[in-house]
Amino acid sequence: MDGEQVQCWLVERDYWDEDVVTLVYATPDGERFHQRQLAANLVVGLDVTAAKTFDEDALEPTPAADRERYAAEARRVASAHDPDETL
Question: In this structure, are strands 5-16 and 32-39 parallel, antiparallel, or unpaired?
Answer without folding.
Answer: unpaired
